[in-house]
Amino acid sequence: MINVAIIGATGYAGQELVRLLYRHPDVNLISVGSRSYSGQPLQDVYPLYNKISNILCEKDDIQDLSKRADVIFLALPHGIASKKVTSRILEDTKIIDLGADFRLKDLSIYKEWYQVDHWGKDILKEAVYGLCELHREKIKDARLLANPGCYTTCSILTLAPLIVNHVIDLSSIIIDAKSGVTGAGRNGQLPFMYCECNESVKAYKVACHRHTPEIEQELAALCDQDIRLLFTPNLVPMNRGILSVCYADLLKDIDEGTLRQMYREYYKNEYFIRLTEDKLPETRWVKGSNFCDIGLKIDPRTKKVIAIGAIDNLIKGAAGQAIQNMNLMFGLDEKTGIDLVTDFPV
Q: Is 57 designated active site?
């Protein structure tokens, strides 16, 4: 059994980790950490655990946990993990960070976009970006795993085959993405309250969203060229789900059948990628699952490709992907504990 601890267990992503890990056949959940609810039963915070778990929320003592746990999940805001994780801790346990602190390889870019100092310069170089479909072999040997962001997961997976096959103009990429309100976390901020979100759709953090350099970094690595793209996130009045609509200019005449075959070939061994063929993805078909659904269309009038991806932001975009990474890091079938079928209707 893998002894697992979670720090930041009472946020939306942390709670989803707890829920999924309780059904994982190879996991022993030894600690759920929460500064806000320390000492309280988890079932008092989330009544869904009534009769399922009597575990108490603990203070997040990473030093102590590193001696007890085989892996620690960090579900924390940016700027905290880089202070907590040290080379000494990595000698005792593996770390899977669901935050942003170890995703970007260039510290100057991290400081520019996140406006905080990074305290883990000495270990940043060994952090592995945990997008399984791109970095599976490196993930298997990782001690420090940077779990990707939700928008980035959906956007990178949707665009990757087009980048690798060199069929689009890299300077023309536009990503218009929609997210449910859980993407903002469980923090009670005014813009994400029900009355502020219901019956409205709005763009936010236009031209300055922090997932932009993460998407650029990973797509650039696929083609060994710098990429600068336009990314616009939108908030829609639903609990969970992301839909990324990606536009780009085609470099040559090509038909949809040929592009779809490129996607089939690129993702032929990827269980969690589903190609929707002549249909287009919808968030309702991935909600509650670890799948990423991808479809595409060509506009012959403008010679543009429109590639569309859909994920559940809390599962494939956060907790499910983190467990997929854990499975790889411990030599398990990566579907273990996360081979979920969405609830419908929900």
A: no
